[in-house]
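## Example record

The block below lists the input lines for one assembly entry, exactly as stored, with component labels intact.
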Amino acid sequence: MLAPIAVADNGGFTPVAPESPNAEGIRDSYVFVSIFVLAIFVLVQGLLIAFIVKYRRRKRPRFEDGAPIHGAARLELLWTAIPVVILFLIGAFVFIELPGIKNIPSAGASGQLEITVTGRQFYWQYEYPNGVIAIDTMRAPAGVPVRLEVTAPDSDVIHSWWIPALGGKIDAIPGTVNETWFEAENPGTYTGQCAELCGLEHANMLASVELMPEAEFAAWLEQRRREQGSGGGELGKETWEGVCAKCHGLAGEGGIGPRVAGSIVLADPDAIENLVRNGRRTMPAVGSGWRSEQVEALAKYLKENPPSGP
Amino acid sequence: MALKAETPPAWQRGKVASWLVTTDHKRIGILYISTALVFFALAGLMALVFRLQLSQANADVLSPDRYNELITIHGTAMVFLVVVPLLAGFANYLVPLMIGAHDVAFPRLNALSYWLFALGGATLMLSFFAKGGAAQAGWTSYPPLSTQAPGNGQDLWILSLHILSAASLAGAINFIVTIHNMRARGMSWTRMPLFVWSILLYAWLLMAILPTLSAGLTLLLLDRGISIGPWDVQTNFFNPAEGGSPVLYQHAFWFFGHPEVYVIVLPAFGIISEVLPVFARKPVFGYKAIAFSTVAIGFFSMIVWAHHLFTVGLPIPLQAYFMIASMIIAVPTGMKIFNWLATLWRGNISFDTPMLYALGFLSIFVMGGLTGIYLAAFPIDWQVHDTYFVVAHFHYTLFGGAVFAIFAGIFYWWPKMFGRRLNEKLGKWQFWTLFVGFNLAFFPQHLVGLEGMPRRVYTYADESWEGYNLASTIGSYVMGFAFLFFIVNVVRTSRSGPRVGNDPWQADTLEWYTTSPPPPHNFDEVPYVTSARPLYDLRRKLRVERGAREPV
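Predicted C-alpha cells for the full assembly:
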C-alpha cells in the first residue's frame, strides 16, 4: 500500500526491507506512523526554535515581564483534540493492517509447512513434520506459507525468535507454545538472532532462514530424512557447530567453555550422551530431550572429525 | 507548631557528625543528591567500558559475563540509584520550602529513608565482589534466566532492590503527609507549585506500585531458594516444569516498571514547569491543564504495563487494549509539551544555564515521546522490541528527559542551596557538549535497532552495524567529557563562586522568600499565599507600596 514511499532499508530509517507479507504490514504501519511523527517533530522543534529566536531578551531589561498570559482554554482544547484524532488514525491503520500481519495466509496448491522452533541455550533447533532436525539454519520453500510453533524446553530460559525481513519477533518461552509465520517469494538467506537476553552466548545465538525453490526444498528434506535414518549426514556437523562449538570453539579449542580438543569424552558415545543430556557444572543440559538419532549423529561426526584444536 | 530549640549533644556538632545525624530535610536532600551523583559517575563509567566493547564488531574488550554484569548494574543503578534518588533529593530539599513548611512531616523517617538508600546502593555496587560476580540477567532480571543464575550476585540484586523499595516507600509516605497537611496559609491545591504537584503524584505512584515489585522480587528470591534456619525453601512460582509461569514475573515487574518511568519523569516535568516561566518572565501557560495532566499521566501509567510484553504471545484483544491505553498517555504528555511551548510565546527569554537545560529537555524529550508511539503500536513493537531502537527510546526519555531536567534543577537551585552561583561559562560548555554527545550517542541507536541489532548482545559480527556503534561510542565519551566540566565547576564554585542574594532569578515560588542558604528552620515567617506565584504578588505589592506605577 505504501510500498513506493519506503525504499529498501534506508540506512536504518525504516525497518529491514520486508520479504514476507507480515513484515510488509509492519513496515507499512511504521511508515504511516512516521508521517505523523515527522510532522509533529518538525512542528515542535520549529516552534521551539522560532520562539527562542523571536522572544529572546535582546535589549530588554533582564527582569521585565513578558506578556501576562495565563492560558487559553480554546487553544489548549485544540492541542488536546488534535492528538486524539491522530492517535485514532494510527490505531485504525494498525487494526486494518493487523489481519495481514497476524493471520497466516490460507494455503495454496502446495499446502502449508509447519516447523517447530525450539530456542535453547544457545541454539535454535528446528523440527520438520517428517522428523527431520536442523540447527540454526532453517531451510524453507519459497512461496509457501510456513507456520512456526515457537517454544523452549521447561529446563531452559526465554529466547525470542526474530528474522527481521520475515516479520516481527515472538518469544520462545519455556512451557508455552507461541506461533508465527512467514511466506517469502525470493530464494536467499535471511538472517536474524535471538532477541531476549538468554545468558552468556546470547549474542552468538544466530538464526538464518535459507529460502529455496519448492522442488529443491523437497529434495533436501527427503535427503535429510534418509541420512538421519542411517545415523549420519549433516545433523552431526550442525549439532557440533550450533550446540557445542559456541562455547568450546569450532576446533574444540575452548571459549567461554573449556578446551575439549583431544578429550577422551569425545571418543566415547556413552560419555557424550551423558554429558549433553545432563550437563556438567555450569554447562547446561544442552541435549536434554534430544532423540537418540541426534546424539548418535553427534557422536558419529565427532568420531569421524575429532576436533583437533588450533 | 512548637519548635523545640534543643542544643544537640557535643558529639553531634562536629562537621561530619552533624551530617551523619541530621534530620534536616535540606541536608538530607543534599546528601541524596551528592550520593546519587557518585553512583551516577560509577554507572556512567560502566557504560563507557561496555561502549568500548561495542565500538567494533567482534571486539575483545570484555568477556560475556563481565559485559552482562556491567549492563545489568548500569541499568539498575541508573534507575534506582541515580535518577530516582536525584529527584527524591530535589523533592526533599524543595517541597517543605516551596509550601512554606519548616521541615517534612516525619524528619527521622526521612533520615532513615536516606540511609536505607545509601545501604541499598552500597549493596548493589559491592555485589561485584560476590561469589560469581554481580547479577547478569539485565535490569529487568527475567526468570528463568535470573532464577537459574549461579552465585550470589542475583540474590544481592534482589536484596538491594528490597532495601531501596523500603527507602522509597518511607520517602513517599513523608511527601504525601507533608504536602497534604503542611502547606502555608492560603496555598490551596491550585496555588501549589507544579513541582510539588509532580512530587505528590510521584509519591502516590510509588505507594501504589512498590508493593507489586516487592512481591515479584520476593517470589524470585524464593524460587532461587533460601535457607531459613534449618529449612531450605525453594518454590516454583516462575518455574514452568512445576506449573509456574515465567511471564507472571514480567507482569509483576512491569506493573511496577512502567509507572516507575513516570515516577522519574513527572518530577522532571515539575522542574521544567518551574524553570521555564522564570526565564521567560511569564506565568506558566495553563497551570491547571499542567496539574491535571500530571494526575492523568499518573493514573494512566498504571494501566499500560503489558506494552512491555507484546512479544510474549498475549491474546490480540489484550494487546489491542494495551496499545490504546498506552497511546492515551500521549495526550496529556502532548498537552504539557504545548503548554511549555506556549509559556515561551511572547516571553522575555534569558538563556542562563538552567534555561538551556530546560530547552534542551524540550527538544530531546519530544523525540523520546514520539518514538514511544511506534512501541505502543503492537505490530510495530514486534519488529523493534528488544532492539537498540528501544534502548534509544528510553535514553531519550530518561537521559534526555530526566537528566537534562535534573541539570536544569541543579543549576537553578544551586544558589538557594549554597548561596553561590555555579559558573555560567562552564555550565554552558557542559550543556552544549552534553547535548551534542547525547544525540551522537543515542540517535544512531534508533537506526541500528531497525537494522536488526538486538540489545544486550556483548558482541556482533555484522560489520554494517559498526558505523552506528562507533558513533554511539564516541558520543558516550563526549558525554563523559561533559561531566568533567561539571566537576570542575563544582570544585571552583565551592571555593570562589560569586555570592548571590536570596532570589537571584527573581523567581515566583516560596523557596526564594527565605535566605540562601535557608536557616535550619527555613522561614522566620511565611507570607499568606495569594496565587500560584506568591513572590510575584509580593514584588508587585512592594512596587505599589513604594509608589511606582503598577505594571500592566
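Chain B is about 65% helix and 0% strand. The radius of gyration of chain B is 24 Å.
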